[in-house]
Every structure is written in structure tokens, then in C-alpha cells.
Amino acid sequence: MADSDNSTTLSSVTLGGRGEGAIKGSARSDEADPALALLRDWLRAQHVSRILCRLQQRLETRILGAAYPAAMDTKVGYSIAYQAEVEAATAALKIQDRLARTPAHSLLGVVAKLEIIVGADRDIDDPTDFPWPHIESILRDLKEIAGSAPLERPDRSVVQADCRRYQAMAADLVGHSQQAADIPFGQQPVNGADTE
Question: Comparing C-alpha atoms, which of 45, 60, 89, 48 is closest to residue 189?
Fold first, then answer.
């Protein structure tokens, strides 16, 4: 009798199948689970932050190699790019701060929360130190049981819009809002492949 009770409980937990296909067609979407929406937003902020970091690094290299008049123009662009990267990274940190207050309504929501924790740690600490290998092991186990949370990259247009928004915020902070507004994001010194 105890076995049948346990199997009934397990069946209801794993109902819906495994993998991303089951996620998209089930009630376990990010609309039904706020933790999945949080993961989506965090991944987007992280991606935009990495793009803006590469832009800032390229401009820093140009400053070091430029003649004085060109260096001054590049330095303004660098200041904006640097501050834009800070703004995007701050957005990702704010999402991480919401993690403890965001409930998971499914095992996939728990997977999503652990994805954020493990992903954030990759940027901060040594992932071989306790408890990170153990947490990653738990994440792998949960994925085996419940499937993976959807880890889709945002559309290129969404990423470009986010980059422009952070650049505009940064330009306002460094006092060069008109210069940033005059340069369309696609003409920034960023390789088009980096915005994907």
C-alpha cells in the first residue's frame, strides 16, 4: 500500500514528460511559474551584459592605440560603453536579488532557480569549491527527473533594443546623451555577430 501511494505521488510530479518539448506544451510555462520568467529575464540581462562588455573592451583597445584627438572621441564612447555594461550587469544582479522572493510552482521552476544560482557563481567564485559541485549535481539530477528549463536566447532585435537602452542610460549618466542618440546601435563598433 505504501508503494502505491509513493508511485502515485511520483507519477503526478513527472507528468508531462521530459525535455523542452514537454515544457512548451504544458502548463509549466514561464507564465505559470514565476521562477521560469525570472530565469528568462536573467539570461537576457547576462547576454546583454556580455555584449556590452565586449564593446567596452574594444573601445578601450582603441583608446590605447589612438592619437590624442581621436582618443578623446573614443574615450567618450568608452565611458558610455563602460557605464552601459555596468547598467546591464546591475540589472542581472537585481534579478538575482529577486530569486529568494520568487516562488517556484514546479520542479522546472526549481531547476530555473538553480540555473541562475549556478550561472551567477560561474562569474564570481571558483566553481570547484564546496558547495558548487554539489549544487550542480543536484541540478543535473533535477533535470533528469523534470527536464530542462527553456534556455533560449532572446531575439537579436530584443538584445539590440536592450543595448541601446543601457547605452542611453549610460550616456545620460556621463553627460553625453546627444552623442549616444546620434549613433544607431548597429553602427557602434560592435561586430554584428556579437549581438546574437
Answer: 60
- Write out the three cell numbers for 66: 589612438
| pLDDT tens by residue, 87-123 | 999 999 999 999 999 999 999 999 999 999 888 876 5
Closest to 76 (Cα-Cα) out of 96, 64, 59: 59
- Confidence at residue 118, expressed as pLDDT on a 0 to 100 scale: 85
Q: Is 28 or 121 the better-scoring residue by pLDDT?
A: 121
In b/e form, how buried is each residue of 117-141, taking b as 16+ CB within 10 angstroms?
eebbbeeeeeeeeeebeeeeeebee
pLDDT for residue 2 is more than 60: no
User: What is the C-alpha to C-alpha distance for residues 134 and 128, in angstroms, rounded to an integer?
Assistant: 9
- Are 31 and 37 spatial neighbours (Cβ–Cβ below 8 Å)? yes
* Omega of the bond leading into 131 within 30 degrees of 0 (cis): yes
Per-domain residue ranges of the chain = 28-195
What is the distance between the terminal CA atoms of the chain, rounded to a whole angstrom? Answer: 54
What amino acid is encoded at 178 in this protein? Q
CA distance 159 to 46: 11
CB 166 within 8 A of CB 48: yes
Written as nine digits, the cell of 195 is 549581438
Q: How far apart are CA 116 and CA 96, in angstroms?
A: 7
Q: Are 79 and 176 contacting, i.e. CB atoms less than 8 angstroms apart? A: yes
Rounded Cα distance between 108 and 167, Å, is 34
